[in-house]
Amino acid sequence: MACETKSQLQRSPEEESALGIAIEFPEMQGVKSSVGELPASDLENVIHTLTVWVFRSDDKTPVSSPLELDEEDFPVGGGVRRYSIPVSNAFAAEKPPVDVFVLANAASIGLAEGTDALTTDSDWSALHDAFFGDSDTEPYYGFGLGGGNMNKIVHSVDPDLGLPMSAYGQEMAVEGEDLVLRVRTLKLKRMVSRLRFVFCKTRTEGDEAEEVAIKSIKMKPYLIPLQEYVFTSRTTGIRITETELNDNYDERYYEIPGLETIAENDNPEALIYVNQDPITYDNLLNEAVDAGKLTDLGYTYFRESDQRLSGTIEYEVDGKSRVHEFNMATAGDFARNHTWTVFGYFLSGRNLQLALNVLPWDYNLFNVDFSEESLNVKSKFRVDETSAELIETSKDHYDVHLLPGLAAKGHLTITTPVGGKLMIKPSGNTKSFVVDPTVAFIDPTVNNGRIDILVRRNPDIDEDLTGHYITLSFSVEAGERVIDANTEAVDIIYKFIL
Fold first, then answer.
1. Of 215, 319, 417, 425, whose CB is crowded by the most CB atoms within 10 A?
2. What is the pLDDT of residue 75?
3. Residue 224: its H or E element
4. What local confidence, expressed as pLDDT, does residue 308 receive?
5. Residues 184, 368: contact at Cβ < 8 Å?
6. Whole-number pLDDT of residue 332
């Protein structure tokens, strides 16, 4: 049953139509991550307040009063609850495109000087232009370098505030008929990213024993932006205000105090990231920390950056100073809602080795779903490389040679439309193959929405099928609608060959 909001209670008689909104909230406890996602703690997931503003795209006027939700309106323990924003009959008849702003945990932002606080009275321009940066607002101070005060750098999440999250959709088409309208799905993302350093060393004894200590870790200046937009439809919300590049970034560096004691680990190479799914790797590190085999310096939360983060680690071996530089692989890897882990380990000989990885910190991509019929593919179709012989023929094109007597295994993850049917259609020498299944129901409560697909040789055909092939295409049936799912589900073309 939809929750009654303030906007509904103030609804005027002529507002007989409604714009339906379904919001998927995070599970607060006991959550499990699908492949391709990095987990977040309960505090990093928590939402205390959420506000939705909807404006006409043409003249920027509000469609209705904002939808303002408090914690008592959220479903217990996460899940989906549907709400509605009343709209006029004239709007329902015209169905103009809309701009939608979604903000969670507004009190956690600490807006920069010159930006007004965002409220239900904020107009389109105030929301569109809102930005945040270093501020005097405790406890986050804008998620920057604290104006040079290391005590203002954020290392933990305030349980009363949570982390700032937002979503923004421009020129969104309004669909539906009569009294039931909807727009497509928006995804709510954290506006900050996090940085983590972990260390260990192998044990040395007797004459080979060496004292190892990390003296300091420094991240170079001009990497954290001074200002960031609250709402952005781009990868990052960096707010460019000057012509000189350095004028947009903090000139200070970030320094982490050193370590005199480093955990010992007989096999530190086992903790190197080797393309595991992120949840597996995160568990691997956390288990090593819990077992005393890895020293964790914890997380640091910063405003996102489109720069290539880099810095130096100063350490000592038997009193002799050494320096090791570290660099993020690609500029833009520290965009909002990402985690960068720097794993340092000392082997015999005591030269510092570094293993670096950046992973999407997107366990909180909670869907703000404005349509229960929308298509949401959380992970695209992939073929398991261990189940067949994959040969890359061109960019994003692979020949999948089936192994004798074995089926090629593929999978994708779809969470909506719930109850819809995923239709898997082979093309090519279709009689030579068996595809199982060709129809699968979409249900996010079963295996987190993952659908496994097997492709094998047709055992009923007793003739030489060498060179026969098929490709797969995808569509979704939701009620009377048929949705082409290839754009959402496919970014690599697989050709299955006998």
1. 417
2. 52
3. none
4. 85
5. no
6. 74
What residue ranges of the chain have pLDDT lower than 70? Answer: 1-16, 18, 20-41, 72-83, 111-115, 178-180, 205-209, 235-236, 241-246, 275-278, 348-351, 355-374, 479-481
What was the pLDDT predicted at 447?
85
pLDDT for 16:
58
Whole-number Å distance between alpha carbons of 436 and 63: 46
Kindly list the distances between the CA atom of residue 294 and the CA atoms of 290, 343, 352, 363, 446, in Å, as whole numbers in the listed order. Answer: 8, 9, 15, 24, 35
Both tokens assigned to 360: 């999407």
- pTM score, whole prediction: 0.65
User: Would you put residue 370 in left (φ > 0), alpha (ψ -120 to 50) or beta?
Assistant: alpha
Question: Which residues 6+ apart lie within 8 Å of 404 measured at CB?
Answer: none
Residue with tokens 């804008």: 142
Burial class (CB in 10 A: 0-12, 13-18, 19+), 403: exposed
The rounded distance, in Å, linking the Cα atoms of 88 and 96 is 12
Three-state SS for 105? Answer: coil
Per-residue pLDDT, 184:
73
Token pair for 485: 């799912």
Three-state SS string across 427-475, please? EECHHHEEEECCEEECCCCCHHHEEEEEEEECCCCCCCCCCCEEEEEEE
- Do 460 and 410 contact (CB within 8 A), yes or no? no
Contacts of range 150-158, beta carbons closer than 8 Å, 24 or more positions apart: 150/255, 153/254, 153/300, 154/300, 154/301, 154/302, 155/298, 155/299, 155/300, 155/301, 156/43, 156/298, 156/299, 157/41, 157/43, 157/44, 157/301, 158/108
The neighbouring-strand residues paired with 225 are 249
CA separation for the pair 83, 428 (Å, rounded):
45
